[in-house]
Design a protein that fits this description.
Elements: E1 2-5, H1 10-22, E2 28-33, H2 37-42, E3 49-52, H3 59-75, E4 80-83, H4 89-98, E5 102-107, H5 114-119, E6 125-128, E7 141-143, H6 156-162, E8 170-174, H7 182-189, H8 192-197, E9 200-205, H9 208-215, E10 221-224, E11 230-235, H10 241-247, E12 250-253, H11 257-265, E13 270-272, H12 282-292, E14 296-298, H13 306-314, H14 321-324
Parallel strand pairs: 1-2, 1-4, 2-3, 4-5, 5-6, 6-7, 8-9, 8-12, 9-11, 12-13, 13-14
Antiparallel strand pairs: 10-11
Helix pairs in contact: 3-4
Amino acid sequence: MILLTASGTGGHIYPAIAVAQALEGQSVYFMIDRGRVSQKILDHYDFPYIDFSFSRKGIICYLVSFFRTLLFFKKHDVKKVLSFGGYVTVPVVLAAWLLRKNIVLFEQNTIPGRANRFLARFSNTVCIAFEESQTYFKRSTILGGNPVRKKYLTDTVMDEILAMPWKQGRRCFVFGGSQGAHYINRFIQSHYEWFEVQSTVLIHVMGNSAYQKLYGDEPMVVVEDESKQVKRVVLPYILDMKRVYDWADCVISRAGATTVAELIEYQKKALLVPYPYAADNHQFYNASAYVRLGLGMMVRQVELTKTVLKEFFEYEISTDETEQDANKGWMTLLD
């Protein structure tokens, strides 16, 4: 059995799911924290998991999770532990280290998280997505990239959206990650008419919380022009990201590690708006690495304007395929 552990947001759990998919045919199990976005995401999949009631400031939670993990190891023949960051992974990795399990850490961001920086000394291998991360780890690392899912969940919402009679024009996908982005939502909403003038149609994913405050339980909001052609769809969430990337000519989003990895995988021109309060400002550095690849632009949210959007629409991407090919190295760690 291979044990995967991840905490918190989609940025942690989606790479873990991608690896689990790559391990098809092998026995896998997840350890996650209860009540977080990661659990809601994993519930859509068929992978078995244990969830911990966890608080990073509560020492009792660490101890309970540590002993529950030890008990799991005693009952199951775990060959390898793959850890994808977040505080819930700390007791899991420490228990694995105590029992001399093979431990691989995956670091998705340019600036490694505190949990991974601490746990690196207990691991056998650290897999990084960006070269910039190397300086934060004393042991050797592998530049393996950030795993991206190859299989997405069936999404009837996308079936409906793609079948709509869309108005001709530039197609722009706007979203803020697994938890939405208040600042981006507010800016885009206040400029809906401006996008129309720019001949740009939108799919705007707001995040569940923000969407429900405005539209309640309505599954999506479809806005048409006078000829009944769709110029905008607003909705809370999309499961099948590949098809919406395929639909879009360009993307406006936050700069979470999974988002950046997917944009690189699907070669999408993007305007990245880093979340300024992310730990260690890691989204800024994720976005900087993305811009260096020649795939898009970055702007601080307080500097997001119509002028910046016009510059972005005119931007021409230029890619370095050799650098992007490094994103497949993580698969060598699954043997």
